């Protein structure tokens, strides 16, 4: 697929797939070019301050009100929303899962989503959900939008073809994509079955974190975010629009494709980002910094420095710190940490946490390197070491993450996760050196 993208984060873009399709100098001409309908998609209240005001103007073959009528409920039993109170008494402990198996039957993206955790309350636009997806079949005449939140998609296997209202993106493992709240999408695949993770963000949109004293460069740079150019289909045949709204699912039949936006302008857009363009900043003399230095995107909660959810990565990097225990320290955290592994190994858990797997270290629950990792890092010669061919990530939220019954009862849940810490011996023997035998 030779797809084209426009660079920049939060830019005001304009794009047309037919010459002259985009009105110039105004949004609502009496008649839009090509007989298109003008429609505004508001991603923020009209009155939001400039810095967070987001909307796009879409010029489309039919207005989307022609795409959304007579909804009937649809079943998507594994996609849960917060508060997920029906699932009863579920484990709070440190949890870890093996990779979700690929489905055996034909499964599309929407039906291949399994919720692992939910946090906050979808009805008040607070919190998030962590999902896995595994699917093997392209959506043909099905289209989907999620009114409950934006979706941060983190592929682990297989390249996604995300055909959104504003254009088309190919998103491979090592890249991420954002599908804005309310934006129509059709998900296809290009190179076999797909698996990955989704952060469904019910709250304020993801944005770039401030860099503070780091300055004007490094971490995720705005130019590396890519928004698709306009693309449309003029398809007249029976189709379905599937909707997630208020934690429930609905479906409606229509007689044409809703991906009929010929031109658009604005700043409420889907985008993708290649994680290898993240320029990490880290410890160049001693100690292990807080993982917030690796924040790619942050979704604020309204309380300063307290994210509704952060998306943090652990990319390839050099470890050079002197006289330092280099892996993550032992930790208890008011924030809740859901982690996944896209490829390679994670330095706190060389075994057991595998690509496609997941872990959950919930609010105030202790965690840290396993016994093997502790031993190794405590005795290693501290030369410069490159952690290479690796990419782990974390969805870190201020709200406790409640596991779903699917996650708690899954065959992939590791019963023996806690054992990874049992080998942590008492080293204290009253001498300043401690006992390292
Ligand atoms: O592995 C984790 O739990 C994530 C994590 C990484 C790190 O470098 C420091 C703290 C932390 O919680
Ligand atoms: Fe942690």
Automatic annotation (TrEMBL):
Keywords carried by this UniProt record: Dioxygenase, Iron, Metal-binding, Oxidoreductase, Phenylalanine catabolism, Tyrosine catabolism
SUPFAM superfamilies: RmlC-like cupins (SSF51182)
GO cellular component terms, semicolon-separated: cytoplasm
Gene Ontology annotations of biological process type: L-phenylalanine catabolic process; L-tyrosine catabolic process
InterPro entries in the record: HgmA_C (IPR046451), HgmA_N (IPR046452), Homogentis_dOase (IPR005708), Homogentis_dOase_bac (IPR022950), RmlC-like_jellyroll (IPR014710), RmlC_Cupin_sf (IPR011051)
Reaction(s) catalysed by this chain's protein: homogentisate + O2 = 4-maleylacetoacetate + H(+)
Pfam families recorded: HgmA_C (PF04209), HgmA_N (PF20510)
Binding-site list for homogentisate: 346, 367
Cofactor: Fe cation
GO molecular function: homogentisate 1,2-dioxygenase activity; iron ion binding
Family the UniProt entry places it in: Belongs to the homogentisate dioxygenase family.
Subunit structure: Hexamer; dimer of trimers.
The protein's role, per its UniProt record: Involved in the catabolism of homogentisate (2,5-dihydroxyphenylacetate or 2,5-OH-PhAc), a central intermediate in the degradation of phenylalanine and tyrosine. Catalyzes the oxidative ring cleavage of the aromatic ring of homogentisate to yield maleylacetoacetate.
Protein name: Homogentisate 1,2-dioxygenase
Highest classification ranks of the organism: Bacteria, Pseudomonadati, Pseudomonadota, Alphaproteobacteria, Hyphomicrobiales
């Amino acid at each position: 697929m030779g797809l084209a993208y426009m660079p920049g984060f939060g830019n005001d873009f304009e794009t047309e797939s037919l010459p002259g399709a985009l009105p110039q100098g105004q949004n609502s001409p009496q008649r839009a070019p090509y007989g298109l309908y003008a429609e505004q998609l508001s991603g923020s209240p009209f009155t939001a301050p400039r810095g967070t005001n987001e909307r796009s103007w879409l010029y489309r073959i039919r207005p989307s009100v022609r795409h959304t009528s007579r909804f009937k409920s649809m079943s998507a039993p594994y996609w849960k929303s917060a508060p997920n109170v029906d699932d009863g008494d579920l484990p709070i402990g440190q949890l870890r899962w093996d990779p979700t198996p690929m489905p055996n039957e034909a499964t599309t993206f929407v039906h291949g989503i399994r919720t692992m955790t939910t946090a906050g309350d979808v009805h008040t636009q607070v919190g998030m959900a962590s999902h896995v997806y595994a699917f093997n079949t392209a959506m043909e005449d099905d289209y989907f939008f999620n009114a409950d939140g934006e979706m941060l998609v983190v592929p682990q296997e297989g390249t996604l073809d995300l055909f959104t209202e504003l254009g088309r993106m190919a998103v491979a493992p090592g890249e991420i994509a954002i599908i804005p709240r309310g934006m129509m999408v059709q998900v296809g695949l290009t190179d076999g079955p797909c698996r990955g993770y989704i952060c469904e963000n019910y709250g304020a949109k993801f944005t770039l974190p401030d860099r503070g004293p780091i300055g004007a460069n490094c971490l995720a740079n705005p130019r590396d975010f890519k928004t698709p150019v306009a693309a449309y289909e003029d398809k007249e045949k029976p189709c379905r629009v599937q909707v997630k709204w208020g934690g429930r699912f609905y479906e409606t039949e229509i007689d044409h494709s809703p991906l009929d936006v010929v031109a658009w302008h604005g700043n409420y857009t889907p985008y993708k980002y290649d994680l290898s363009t993240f320029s990490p900043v880290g410890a160049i003399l001693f100690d292990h910094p807080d993982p917030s230095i690796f924040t790619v995107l942050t979704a604020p909660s309204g309380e300063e420095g307290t994210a509704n959810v952060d998306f943090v990565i652990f990319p390839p990097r050099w470890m050079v710190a002197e006289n330092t225990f280099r892996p993550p320290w032992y930790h208890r955290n008011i924030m809740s940490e859901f982690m996944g592994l896209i490829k390679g190994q994670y330095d706190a858990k060389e075994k057991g946490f595998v690509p496609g797997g997941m872990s959950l270290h919930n609010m105030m629950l202790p965690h840290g390197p396993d016994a093997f990792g502790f031993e190794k890092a405590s005795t290693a010669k501290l030369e410069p070491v490159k952690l290479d061919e690796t990419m782990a990530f974390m969805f870190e939220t201020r709200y406790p993450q409640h596991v779903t019954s699917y996650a708690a009862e899954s065959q992939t849940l590791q019963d023996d996760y806690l054992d990874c810490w049992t080998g942590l011996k008492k080293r204290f023997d009253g001498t300043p050196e401690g006992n390292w035998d």
